Amino acid sequence: MNEKVIFFDIDGTILDHNKEIPLSTRDTIKNLKNHGHHVAIATGRAPFMFEDLRRELDIHSFVSFNGQYVVFEDEVIYENPLKKETLEHLLQFADKENHPLVFMSEENMMSTTGDHPLIEQSMGSLKVASPKQKRDYYLDRNIYQTLLFCEIGEEERYSNQYSELKLIRWHDVSADILPANGSKAEGIKQLAKRLNIQRENIYAFGDGLNDLEMIEYVGTGVVMGNAVPSLKEVADFITKPVDEDGIRYGVEKLGLLK
């Protein structure tokens, strides 16, 4: 059998718009594993934000924080945290712009401010509770991703200010902040290296802007029917939307269960 590794994004890919796993997706992932393939997650979420999902689907390898924290069979194999001095400057700049931040470690996340409507709006869309406040959370632990809360277009001020950072919008009022060299593609390279698996045997399913490098890098990039238009432009295959059994359809059409 020619084994493959298949990476799945979470929101809009594994999870439908109600943040539930379609039954067809559960069955498909189980069948992929039964056929000897490796199944992994590639997400912008922090590990603590999808622990229940990993347990539910019995998945033990993942690329999290958009590539900054990679785990293979429950073992951490790659870390790419943001630099402390950069976070210090970022906090000062965000304060001047009156934009809240959320610092994210592998275990938890903390906000630079108290209750804030933009944080509640965007985190609520993930069905995740808003974080508590601790402005200096970044000082004594690794921070792999920071969330910026601002209106569309305002993140450009940060991109112009910090060449060492990459900003990717994931919500109308929020953007991910990563190291400039970070991406899901880089995290996938690290996991593929551990598996000793060739690029042509790597598949990935995604739907958002943070999936762009991943879809371009892997041997077969599968884009959900509900994906953003720019992602569809680089797809090797466009499957049906998540709520129309898109994962099962894509897996079957690509012959991964033969």
Automatic annotation (TrEMBL):
<dbReference type="GO" id="GO:0005829">
    <property type="term" value="C:cytosol"/>
</dbReference>
<dbReference type="InterPro" id="IPR036412">
    <property type="entry name" value="HAD-like_sf"/>
</dbReference>
<dbReference type="GO" id="GO:0016791">
    <property type="term" value="F:phosphatase activity"/>
</dbReference>
<dbReference type="InterPro" id="IPR006379">
    <property type="entry name" value="HAD-SF_hydro_IIB"/>
</dbReference>
<keyword id="KW-0378">Hydrolase</keyword>
<dbReference type="Pfam" id="PF08282">
    <property type="entry name" value="Hydrolase_3"/>
</dbReference>
<protein>
    <submittedName>
        <fullName>Hydrolase Cof</fullName>
    </submittedName>
</protein>
<dbReference type="InterPro" id="IPR023214">
    <property type="entry name" value="HAD_sf"/>
</dbReference>
<dbReference type="InterPro" id="IPR000150">
    <property type="entry name" value="Cof"/>
</dbReference>
<dbReference type="GO" id="GO:0000287">
    <property type="term" value="F:magnesium ion binding"/>
</dbReference>
